[in-house]
Amino acid sequence: MKKTIVIGACGQIGTELVLGLRGLKGSENVIAADLHDHCPEKLAGGPYTKMDILNRDAVRSFIIDNSIKEVYLLAALLSATAEKNPAFAWELNMEGLFTILDLAKEGHIDKIFWPSSIAVFGPTTPKVNTPQMTIMEPSTVYGISKQSGERWCEYYFNNYGVDVRSIRYPGLISYTSLPGGGTTDYAVDIFYQAKLGNDFNCFLNEDTALPMMFMEDAIRATLELMEAPKEKVKIRSSYNLSGCSFTPKELAEEIKLILPEFRIQYSPDFRQKIADSWPDSIDDSAARNDWGWKEQFDTKSLVDIMLKNVNVSLLEQNNN
Ligand code: NAD
Ligand code: AKB
Fold first, then answer.
1. pLDDT in the model for residue 173
2. Is it the case that residue 38 has pLDDT exceeding 80?
3. 163 and 181 share a domain?
4. For residue 187, what are the domain limits?
């Protein structure tokens, strides 16, 4: 079995992606890599290495010396954090990608997964059922970095035959780890506050619709795209992917059906402008037609599973 590495493995997606890949390829074949000195407990069932994606020489040596053939590059600053440090966000989100694309161009890596985002769209993009190919004028540094990354992925595929695959994830909702600084994070935090019996103060307006997806769907989509025969992957920038779409008010109403005492207030902050520049909903017919994508979770099933499974002790662990 060829070796695989997930870089940025301790984050919201990485924690579940590593487990999914280990189930598929065998634990010993999937290396988790992140900035942390020690492997988190959830990933302790397989190999872990401390790695800084910005240390190009160290990353190159590790991947070549360990004969790693498949790379999932997740390390990035997300939209809200990136706006606070645009120069570093640009460096982190772009430099790591070039390191990995170059290793593949030189023949050391067979296949790359690199995530894009709905943030590639901007205020001039059609908002409802946003098409795969459309106007893209992102107004955040995060969106600009993802759009540039998409262009470079396609360029390396067209010019050097690099097998790079990508998804424009919507906001991802999960209970095994906390989100890391995005504009869609409210849709995870809300479940912890509801479970604690607290009122929730939402940083977006009640009517801000955004595309969202339950993590299990996102992981399955990622694995299916990476397993798809090469000729079926016709888009080498990044695929639109849709799960569900809701506003904070609609999400709160669903939660109230299970926890009638739950209350929500709204105090929009700088993230409102970011959310206003993103689509309400996504047309993902290309992913459906090319490699057979179909979501399994709608808003209702996502709310049920989140309320059953969020563990408020995760908040305390994160604060320590
Ligand atoms: P996250 O912030 O939860 O995790 C990122 C991980 O990368 C963290 O564990 C962090 O320690 C690690 N990291 C940061 N800098 C690093 C470096 N220099 N070297 C190695 N590791 C480093 O992010 P996430 O939500 O898991 O997102 C992963 C990827 O998916 C990102 O590229 C993000 O843009 C993309 N994405 C996420 C979402 C979402 O809703 N979570 C949506 C669209 C796209
Ligand atoms: C964010 O809000 O930054 C991410 C994303 C949609 O890319 N969740």
1. 98
2. yes
3. no
4. 174-212+243-319
Work out the average pLDDT over 152-160.
Answer: 98
Segment 75-99 shows an average pLDDT of 98
> Can you tell me which residue has the tokens 């890599």?
33
CA angle 212, 218, 221 (to 5 degrees): 130
Neighbours of 126 (CB within 10 A): 13
- pLDDT of amino acid 318: 74
Q: Is 125 within the bounds of a domain?
A: no
**Rounded to whole angstroms, how far apart are CA atoms 31 and 174?**
22
In a domain, 84, yes or no: yes
Q: How far is the CA of 183 from the centre of ligand 2 (A)?
A: 6
Query: Which protein residues are within 6 Å of ligand 1, measured from CB?
Result: 7-8, 10-14, 34-35, 51-54, 74-76, 78, 92, 115, 117, 169, 171-172, 179-182, 184
Residue nearest to ligand 1 atom 10, measured at CA? 8
Residue 1's pLDDT is 84
Examine the pLDDT at 319 and tell me if it is beyond 80: no
Per-residue pLDDT tens over the stretch 241-299: 999 999 999 999 999 999 999 999 999 999 999 999 999 999 999 999 999 999 999 99
Judge if 57 and 13 occupy the same domain: yes
For the chain, how many structural domains are there in total?
Answer: 2
Same domain assignment for residues 180 and 229: no
What digits encode the pLDDT tens for the residues 17-30?
999 999 999 999 99
Q: Is the domain of 205 the same as that of 150?
A: no
Least confident of 30-34, 115-119, 252-256, 314-318: 314-318
SS3 category, 201: strand
Ligand 2 atom index nearest CA of 119: 7
Please give the number of the atom of ligand 1 that sits closest to the Cα of 181. Answer: 2
Does 182 sit in the ligand 2 pocket, CB within 6 Å? yes
Q: Is 118 in the pocket of ligand 2 (CB under 6 A)?
A: yes
Task: At 210, list the tokens.
Answer: 């955004």
Question: Is residue 186 in some structural domain?
Answer: yes
DSSP E strands, 100-224: 111-113, 116-117, 164-165, 167-169, 171-173, 200-202, 210-214
* Residue the block writes with tokens 């390191």: 99
CATH number at 17 reads 3.40.50.720
